[in-house]
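Researcher: We plan to redesign the surface later, but first we want a full-length starting point. Tokens attached.
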């Protein structure tokens, strides 16, 4: 293909994608995800950012992130807090500590909160989370839970106690690839079923994948984006896989540079924005682990949500999913000022005092 023909092809794809939702085939998305030329990438990110501005508006929604505990019953082969990692000092925040973090988020002007932890399925944990949700309800925060696979009854109880959104990454939409990343007892089908249950239960539903996984192809990633569309999700939380030295997957991980992992993460954001238009897409913390300004680059590639950490700093070292987690020592207030400044430099602003519900959720429930 000549340079002109390549330019025309890219131009045609970007303008069709920007013009209507879900207008790209899997092969076309795989083509966009394989771009490496810097001029082509600039055009891809600019087109995605235009769609973000048109469909979600100017500004970046903000959620305070509470890492409520690192005790996990699972052994995902890539995750630093997997149950077999004996080098992790385990912790579980008390209800008071979670409530303190929620109050701090509110005081900083964050109108939404994400509570994330290792996966625990037990009555004691279910009722603990219920109590926490009821306790923080007077703060009137939009609460997202990211607490893994649970039964329908548990999801219902947490919904009734005040949680409105739930994030459960599918990790990869390819069941064969999923099987290489998890022990045999983990079921890809159960994870999909959980996403359907969450939708039925009335949550704004989020999912996502990791990119730059061993054995993953551009077509796998394109199918991941098609999967988001097929599941009609409201929010996407995805990011590059970053090896953690104390995990089995680190030994087989492709030797990619930080820049390559970051670039793939940005391409996933851009192509997802171009395909789905009005979903919330987070600029994941993993982007910031790969470059200081990784989250800002995520926003410039089409993301519209950022989740600064509001967990007490003394716990942050114990919640390391991958190597190089950023902001281990920065107090929440410092993170807020730093982020505010960083977004200003790219002509964006944090949307303080606004919950930032997914425009897609609004459309699908109000039309
Ligand atoms: N335990 C819950 C679950 O698995 O759904 C929620 C917390 S879990 C730590 C949140 C996400 O961290 C996972 O869905 C996974 O995608 C991501 N994660 C884990 N290890 C990672 C790694 N090494 N690199 C990048 N992301 C990772
Ligand atoms: Fe546990 Fe989630 Fe990590 Fe898997 S990804 S080991 S479920 S915390």
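Model: Full-length starting sequence:
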């Amino acid at each position: 293909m000549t340079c002109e023909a390549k330019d025309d092809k890219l131009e045609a794809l970007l303008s069709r994608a920007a013009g209507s939702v879900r207008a790209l085939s899997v092969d076309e998305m795989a083509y966009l995800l394989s771009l490496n030329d810097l001029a082509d990438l600039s055009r891809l990110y600019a087109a995605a950012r235009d769609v973000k501005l048109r469909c979600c508006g100017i500004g970046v929604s903000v959620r305070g992130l509470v890492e409520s505990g690192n005790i996990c019953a699972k052994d995902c082969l890539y995750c630093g807090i997997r149950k077999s990692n004996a080098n992790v000092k385990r912790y579980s925040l008390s209800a008071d500590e979670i409530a303190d973090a929620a109050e701090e988020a509110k005081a900083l002007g964050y109108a939404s909160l994400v509570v994330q932890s290792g996966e625990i399925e037990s009555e004691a944990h279910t009722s603990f989370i219920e109590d926490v949700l009821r306790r923080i309800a007077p703060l009137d925060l939009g609460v997202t839970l990211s607490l893994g696979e649970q039964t329908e009854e548990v999801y219902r109880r947490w919904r009734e106690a005040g949680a409105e959104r739930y994030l459960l990454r599918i990790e990869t939409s390819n069941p064969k690839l999923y099987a290489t990343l998890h022990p045999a007892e983990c079921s890809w089908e159960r994870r999909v079923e959980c996403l359907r249950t969450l939708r039925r239960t009335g949550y704004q539903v989020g999912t996502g994948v990791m990119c730059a996984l061993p054995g993953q192809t551009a077509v796998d990633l394109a199918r991941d984006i098609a999967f988001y569309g097929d599941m009609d999700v409201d929010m996407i939380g995805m990011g590059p896989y970053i090896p953690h030295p104390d995990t089995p997957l680190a030994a087989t991980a492709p030797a990619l540079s930080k820049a390559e992992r970051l670039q793939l993460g940005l391409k996933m954001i851009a192509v997802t924005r171009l395909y789905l238009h009005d979903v919330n897409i987070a600029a994941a913390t993993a982007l910031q682990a790969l470059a200081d300004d990784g989250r800002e680059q995520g926003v410039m590639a089409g993301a519209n949500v950022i989740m600064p950490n509001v967990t007490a700093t003394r716990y942050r070292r114990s919640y390391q999913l991958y190597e190089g987690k950023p902001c281990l020592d920065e107090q929440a207030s410092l993170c807020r000022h730093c982020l505010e400044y960083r977004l200003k430099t790219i002509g964006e602003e944090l949307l303080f005092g606004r919950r930032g519900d997914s425009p897609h959720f609004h459309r699908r429930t109000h039309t």
